[in-house]
Design goal:
21 strands; six-stranded mixed beta sheet; nine-stranded mixed beta sheet; 31% helix; 12 helices; 410 residues
Length: 410
């Protein structure tokens, strides 16, 4: 069996399959732990079920084009190229579709914490899950009101959210500035101690149990009948297998196309800055709703991460966006020091309906998809691994994942 992609989702799938006495090889072209998740907020975001395609978002698109430093931006040079993706994205702002997406995501995220705990225990990865809720801060009454409908739907679907005052938020985290009148505590969430260590520990466990990791990327397939016989790599090799798992992040789009499957997947850029000596003591992950970023107290540094940038697949990072986040972070935590900062950029594989792609396609009977997780890669990695194992072994699942199938855009 070959798993294409060794990021947090791919290696979780590989480990789950290895447990079932499968011989598993992982193809990973990059440095281990330096995929999309290394520039993420690192949350087990159980309540992150409200899709990006919220009703009323169309009116905000001109602002995204005009403000390259905003929390969500579109590079003008790629706006035309992104138009087909955006048309699908906007079709999901209709209330019925919006609510259906949230319900589908809740099916998966509500299993995420237990799956992650079980994964950490199974592979002896200690002190990785920090089970503290996250705090969201609101700059104004208007900001708070903008989240009212999303919070109402999240609660309706089973999320636990406490709305508190800014003063109460400062009782939880004294380092927060006194300028925030409102806050919310998301009780279902937690976060990981370090995203890079998480992926590297999972790889360590995989290799220790007999898994094979090849430092190469997939560039195509050799087909046989209704399935795939082998995957071709960028170093000229051809690796045969009975089953394949496609978990290649933003590169999954081109590989799926070669299988006759059109995945409207785009790699949206996120930025991350690590601060080794922040001079503030933070116990909870804190999000600025208006700023579109989070502050995460990872084990070795405080991280500032967020924003969504629509850019081409080969676009170079716009580090000014990371610098802007750091400036905004100082307004949230006035005592923040930024000496020794390091920056990262990651491409999160987003689908226009915010749902990941999990399942098999009628076009290729022995390829299972596990990609397109967007901002939920760390959250859903262990859950996806468990589901991929069931799909490959043709066992029943404890959720209806028909809405996540790779053929849903045909």
């Amino acid at each position: 069996m070959v798993v294409i992609g060794g990021g947090v989702v791919g290696i979780s799938c590989a480990l789950a399959l290895l447990e079932d006495d499968c011989k598993v090889t992982v193809l990973e072209p990059g440095n281990i732990g330096e995929g999309a998740s290394w520039a993420s907020c690192g949350c087990i975001a159980v309540g992150e079920i409200i899709p990006l395609s919220q009703p009323g978002i169309m009116s905000k698109v001109p602002g995204w084009l005009l403000n390259p430093e905003g929390p969500l931006a579109i590079r003008p040079t790629t706006a035309l190229q992104m138009l087909p993706w955006f048309m699908r994205f906007l079709s999901n702002t209709r209330t019925q579709r919006f609510r259906a997406i949230a319900a589908d995501l809740a099916q998966l995220t509500f299993q995420a914490t237990d799956d992650f705990r079980n994964q950490m225990a199974r592979y002896n990865i200690h002190e990785m899950l920090i089970e503290r809720p996250v705090i969201k801060l609101f700059d104004s009454d208007r900001d708070k009101a903008s989240m009212a409908s999303s919070f109402a739907l999240a609660r309706e679907l089973g999320c636990s959210i406490d709305e508190i005052s800014g003063d109460e938020a400062r009782e939880l985290e004294p380092a927060i500035a006194p300028s925030f009148p409102h806050a919310a505590v998301l009780r279902d969430w937690s976060y990981v101690a370090d995203c890079v260590r998480l992926v590297r520990e999972l790889h360590r466990a995989f290799v220790a149990r007999g898994g094979v990791v090849i430092s190469a990327g997939a560039v195509g397939f050799e087909k046989s009948g209704e399935g795939v016989r082998a995957v071709r790599t960028n170093d000229g090799d051809s690796i045969e297998a009975d089953e394949f798992v496609l978990s290649a992040g933003s590169q999954s789009k081109e590989l799926a196309r070669q299988l006759g499957i059109s995945l409207p997947l785009e790699g949206l850029i996120g930025y991350w800055t690590g601060l080794p000596t922040p001079n503030v003591d933070l116990k909870h992950t804190v999000f600025s709703v208006n700023g579109g970023f989070g502050l995460m107290p990872f084990e070795a540094e405080l991280a500032v991460a967020g924003t969504v940038e629509f850019a081409g697949a080969k676009a170079k990072p716009n580090w000014r966006r990371a610098d802007v986040l750091l400036e905004k972070a100082k307004r949230v935590l006035p005592g923040l020091q930024t000496q020794g900062a390091t920056r990262r950029m990651g491409r999160r594989p987003f689908m226009p309906d915010t749902r990941p792609v999990i399942g098999k396609s009628k076009h290729s009977r022995n390829v299972t998809f596990a990609t397109g997780h967007g901002q939920l890669g760390v959250t859903l990695a262990a859950t996806t691994g468990r589901m991929v194992k069931a799909l490959v072994k043709e066992r029943p699942l404890n959720a209806d994942i028909s809405a996540f199938g790779p053929d849903r855009f045909e």
